[in-house]
Design a protein that fits this description.
The protein is of the alpha+beta class. Among the domains are: about 190 residues, no CATH class; about 160 residues, no CATH class; about 150 residues; about 45 residues, no CATH class; about 160 residues, Vaccinia Virus protein VP39 (Rossmann fold), CATH 3.40.50; about 70 residues, Orthogonal Bundle (Arc Repressor Mutant, subunit A). It contains 39 helices and 40 strands. It is an enzyme of class 2 (transferase).
């Protein structure tokens, strides 16, 4: 019978030193036995699956060279071929000593170095591939006729190719191809490489096992009215059962079915369960003979099975049904659980509140790696690359012992690295870091074994290895702490058995390192005591229970449900253990929710303890700030890098301030890596939050900014994300380029923009029918206090037609006497909720809005209309609203009825600025118009009267066009119109529904109006209409700086001077067309002495925007005035170095 595998091995085994002649037929034969097609014939230098694939390598100076990949398959691998020589033949030719020194002699130190160099060469080819082709998940080094070394990086970054599947299995010798599982692995590398990502393979198994845990926990705890066991006892019991099942699966118990058989023996009499399993656990704690198993048991220790540490030593009693669940769970293969998510699922199984969503909430392994790799592994691998290079240099110089000493020292250092997660939960970030460091350790020990045969194995067996004691955690939830410890040990033991086979680790198997600490990572305090008011009475808050109102029948707060507000006493910052790296997924609690989520007392103690963190910043930013302090502490900081997952609100003003202050501190930090906007997942799909990832390092410096280019649904609810990466100085808002954080608010824009009103009481809202019943239209004066009401959805989609009761300016008795029906309505529908409000103003002024917004009221008073935009929206649209409308707080109201202002705000220039300066919110990742960040610093153009009129005319037509289409086509909305406009601009074909919106909404006319508006606004700035967004932002930042200087000198270009500065004379209140004086402006520079330099300076000044001769003269000290400067400007124009833009102004 024909044996194709044997024939392949017989043909190629032992061939040597003919790489270029042999590698193509060898790999073609390999493809045949793997059952995959051979590479495609060459057709030009490129190709997705071919030999000798060309790639362009770019040097730092811009020079390029073409290099060739031996074998490339797009999306799968880069393969670099070598062919060594066999030791016996080389020894016969050159002698044993010389043969060992030769780089081509297989299994020699020189050959090991050559294989490492080949790996580096293959990684270089992967870097040179076009960005559109992405990083291949595998790199293969092939010694033709001898072995294949396989490395994998599933992160998509190409920076962390590690031995795959592990140190023991990454090198595939030709005889190994007889094993079907090896051939299957290579077949999958050729055909579906991402299927080999270990995290994908284990998720489903782990979820299935977690289902058993939830059912067990539910049965053991019993119903609420008749509980069987306390939750903490159930947690301890289940963790001991879990580890017993895991120990059985990996071979740490006397047989692979020992625990299952013990459970099955209890079927006839479940009462035997407690004494039998109790005996086993006591034996596992101490080691020795177990009567229950009738066999010797290894010593586990570590506290898990010891009495008093995790609870009583005795198991909980079980009935027949519970026993059956345990038996079924024990029959699963626990060796394949994924610790990175198992801990979270176990915690959920133990938490009654989370059980209904079991399996729905965990941090995907890919997301964890995406942060751990740049935070921890990138600097460690960079260090290892340096050690490898130095070791190779030593060996090539004849100092093999010196090379081994360098590698040995690095291994000792790797075993001393400490990693801290100050909000570790169930330890998934720590576990992933442990596994990645174990992979790196495998490479280190492999090279050490080549340089000093047997030493790597001796170190591993002796226990000198990366282990759980290096991974430190702080966790507030007592239920999660022992789970985190268990997760680390399961992960560590899994890795041991993958790399060491069936050999057990040194006893005790577990060690009680106490490396996961229960506690609050932000505050340490002596005790908590009741908070007291000014009278000394204890402060309480509503506990959340409701009752049915006897008159309205509505659910209202139950005033008898009061919770004591506790205040930490003696609060101070928690001391974190020293660690070289900090990595964490911080709690997602928004700044506005801190009181509600953590309690008044805790929130106030937090703000007092961390005064440099704005009170409105998210909870995560307190961790962020504390980590930044660790990174910069001391002359040589212990902490090298810190990496975090936060919500993407880190780019918003209060959170961003923490980042910016840390970057500007002395000493500063810089962002070594960042992803500004990334999807989140809860295990079943995207969660309603977007996240950011940031990695900081001490000192100034540049970093890598990864921008998401695509998102797609992936397996197990985990989005598949692709990136493009840019390098440079990353700003505090997680951008490259012009730093929008440097802009400052302009007086010219002050007091015009603000959010609408905040009701804090749904009872203020009424329908038109209710308003009429309350007296609207029949009670004199009520029309001033019941007005149309719009929120963001009303504006974007279709208005609900609601009205709002606005009693601003009226005392309680005035409302009662003038509008008794309204008073009774608010009394019944608003007051019950307000009576339990924590804020005294809202309790005492219950008939008024929770936030009155006097700034907004003043800005729109006396206008016939005002400008509004939705605070958080997919499309940035500005519209005119009638003055009688009351905008909700999710609308930004701008107190201007000038269509010129609306036109500039609706232009592409303002939108480019807005997208650079704004924050982002929600699963839709919609940009948020924060008026402080966006409107206040934005410099409006210094437009001529003609330009102002043109912009205003187009803006009026645009506003009227949209309103007319919405009025005549009830199925249309602003969001729908702009969805179609975005599709047209992107060149996408329109669906039937989109074509209907296009035709009914006349979207092509809408596009034409926007194009005209964009061109007119660009001309008013004197800028080209086709500037890139980055160039627009850079010019806006520069113009802001120029306007700030002007305003400091007393020149303010008010947008609405009659409202903003009525007291100033017209000489001081310069609007857009007013002339400036002849004196040099503050910050003016000296006029150059020689004429060529004068023209260079003049042209440079014109690049900042259009200017007249008078304008330019004021920018220089000693510059000519009047006709002489006008002549110089005309000369530049005649030479094509500047162009006139009207009214004697020029721009370059």
């Amino acid at each position: 019978m024909r044996d194709p595998i044997g024939s392949f091995i017989a043909r190629w085994d032992g061939t040597e030193q003919a790489e270029r002649a042999n590698y193509i037929p060898f790999l073609n034969d390999l493809c045949t036995i793997l059952g995959v097609p051979p590479p495609d014939p060459a057709a030009g230098p490129l190709g997705d699956y071919r030999y000798e694939r060309g790639v362009t390598h770019r040097e730092a100076d811009g020079a390029t060279t073409t290099r060739r990949i031996d074998l490339y398959k797009r999306g799968c691998f880069v393969l670099e071929a070598k062919q060594g020589a066999n030791a016996p033949r080389q020894g016969a030719l050159f002698g044993a000593g010389e043969a060992e020194r030769r780089a081509n002699v297989r299994r020699s130190p020189g050959w090991a170095q050559a294989m490492l160099k080949a790996k580096g060469q293959a990684e270089g080819y992967a870097r040179d591939l076009p960005a559109a082709e992405g990083w291949p998940p595998f790199v293969i080094v092939c010694d033709v006729g001898f072995c294949l070394d396989v490395y994998a990086d599933f992160s998509g970054t190409g920076k962390h190719y590690a031995q795959f599947p592990d140190r023991e299995g990454f090198r595939i010798y030709l005889p190994d191809l007889r094993r079907p599982e090896v051939r299957d692995r290579l077949h999958t590398i050729w055909t579906d490489p991402m299927a080999l990502d270990p995290s994908r393979q284990r998720v489903r198994v782990t979820r299935d096992i977690a289902e058993y845990l939830a059912r067990l926990a539910r049965a053991l705890e019993g119903p609420k009215d008749k509980p069987r066991h306390a939750p903490q006892h159930v947690a301890t019991f289940l963790m001991r059962c879990i580890f017993s099942m895991f120990a059985q699966s990996v071979g740490l118990l006397p047989s692979g079915t020992a625990f299952t058989e013990l459970l099955e023996d209890c079927r006839k009499n479940p009462k035997n369960f407690v004494p039998l399993v109790g005996d086993l656990w006591r034996s596992m704690n101490t080691g020795g003979f177990s009567p229950a198993l009738r066999a010797m048991v290894l010593r586990f220790n570590g506290g898990l099975f010891a009495p008093g540490v995790h609870g009583a030593a005795e198991p909980l009693p079980v009935d027949g049904d519970m026993l059956e669940l345990l038996i079924q769970a024990s029959r699963r293969d626990w060796a394949d659980v994924e610790p990175a998510i198992f801990g979270t699922l176990l915690e959920n199984a133990l938490d009654p509140k989370q059980r209904g969503e079991l399996g729905a909430h965990f941090t995907p392994r890919a997301f964890v790696e995406r942060l751990v790799l740049p935070t921890v592994m990138e600097p460690l691998r960079a260090e290892w690359d340096g050690v490898k290079a130095a070791a190779v240099l030593k060996v090539e110089g004849g100092d093999r012992a010196g090379g081994a000493a360098l590698v040995r020292a690095f291994h000792a250092r790797l075993c001393a690295v400490r990693v801290l997660d100050p909000a570790c939960g169930t330890g998934n970030f720590l576990y992933v870091t442990l596994e990645l460091m174990k992979r790196l350790e495998g490479e280190v020990l492999d090279l050490l074994a080549d340089l000093a045969p047997g030493e790597g194995d001796r170190l591993d067996v002796a226990g000198a290895s990366v282990d759980p004691h290096q991974f430190l955690g702080i966790e507030k939830n007592p239920r999660a702490v022992p789970v985190a410890e268990l997760v680390l040990w399961i992960g560590h033991l899994q890795w041991h058995f993958r790399t060491r086979g069936s050999a057990p680790p040194a006893e005790p198997i577990l060690r009680d390192f106490r490396n996961i600490r229960e506690g609050d990572a932000l505050l340490t305090y002596n005790r908590e005591e009741p908070d007291r008011d000014a009278k000394g009475d204890p402060v309480t808050r509503w506990g959340g229970r409701t009752k049915v109102h006897p008159i309205t029948g509505e659910n209202v707060p139950d005033e008898t449900d009061r919770v004591l507000v506790l205040r930490p006493v003696g609060a101070k910052p928690t001391q974190w253990p020293e660690a070289e790296f900090i990595v964490s997924n911080f709690p997602f609690v928004a700044g506005k929710d801190l009181r509600a989520e953590l309690g008044d007392g805790y929130a106030e103690a937090l703000w007092a303890t961390y005064p440099k963190v704005p009170a409105s910043a998210d909870l995560a930013m307190h961790f962020w700030w504390k980590s930044a302090q660790a990174v910069t502490k001391g002359k040589v900081p212990v902490t090298r890098r810190a990496g975090f997952i936060t919500s993407n609100s880190i780019r918003q003003v209060f959170c961003r301030r923490v980042v910016g202050d840390s970057m500007e501190a002395k000493p500063p930090v810089h962002l070594a890596f960042a992803i500004p906007d990334h999807p989140w997942a809860d295990g079943h799909g995207a969660a309603a939050v977007r996240i950011s990832m940031t990695v900081i390092e001490s000192g100034p410096g540049e970093g890598n900014l990864a921008m998401v280019t695509s998102e797609a649904a992936g397996a197990d609810g985990v989005p598949v994300v692709t990136f493009t990466t840019m390098q440079g100085r990353i700003n505090a808002d997680l951008s490259l380029g012009a730093d929008v954080k440097t802009t400052k608010p302009l007086r010219a824009n002050e007091r015009l923009a603000s959010p609408g009103v905040k009701l804090h009481g749904a009872g203020f809202l009424v329908t038109p029918q209710q308003a009429k019943a309350l007296g609207l239209g029949s009670v004199p004066g009520l029309e001033a206090h019941i007005r149309p009401y719009l929120n963001g959805r009303d504006l974007q989609q279709r208005s609900r037609g609601l009205m709002v009761i606005d009693l601003d300016g009226l005392r309680e008795d005035e409302v009662r006497q003038r509008f008794p029906a309204v008073y009774q309505h608010v009394l019944l529908h608003v007051k019950p909720e307000r009576d339990l409000n924590n804020e005294a103003y809202r309790r005492e002024n219950w008939w008024l809005f929770g936030r009155n917004n006097a700034v907004m009221r003043a800005a729109v008073r006396g206008l016939r209309r005002f400008i509004a935009t939705v605070e958080t929206a997919k499309h940035r649209v500005f519209v005119f609203l009638p003055a009688e409308v009351r905008p909700d707080n999710m609308l930004i109201a701008i107190g201007s009825d000038d269509a010129f202002v609306l036109g500039v705000l609706q232009s592409r220039i303002h939108e480019a600025w807005f997208l650079a300066a704004c924050g982002w919110l929600g699963v839709g990742n919609d940009p948020r118009y924060n008026k402080t960040q966006v409107f206040d610093p934005f410099p409006f153009p210094n437009a001529t009267a003609v330009q102002r009129a043109e912009i205003a005319t187009i803006a009026e037509e645009l506003d009227a066009h949209r309103k007319a289409r919405l009025a005549t086509q009830p199925h249309l909305s602003l969001t729908g119109l702009y969805n179609v406009l975005a599709a047209i601009r992107a060149g996408k074909p329109l669906s039937a529904a989109e074509k209907d919106v296009h035709d009914a909404g006349q979207v092509s006319i809408l596009r034409a109006l926007h194009d005209r508006l964009d061109a007119a606004v660009a001309a008013s700035y004197g800028w080209p209409a086709d500037l890139s967004d980055a160039a627009v932002v850079a010019r806006v930042v520069a113009l802001n700086a120029e306007r700030v200087k002007e305003e400091a000198a007393g020149t303010v270009r008010w947008l609405r001077p009659e409202f903003q500065a009525p007291e100033e004379t017209r000489r001081k209140a310069v609007q857009t067309e007013m002339a400036v004086g002849e004196t040099a402006a503050p910050g003016a520079v000296a006029w150059p002495k020689d004429v060529p330099s004068q023209f260079i300076a003049l042209r440079s000044a014109l690049t900042r925007g259009p200017a007249s001769a008078q304008d330019v003269s004021r920018r220089f000290k000693g510059a000519p005035r009047g006709a002489k400067m006008a002549e110089m400007l005309a000369t530049l124009a005649a030479l094509g170095q500047a162009r006139p833009v009207g009214n004697g102004r020029y721009v370059a």
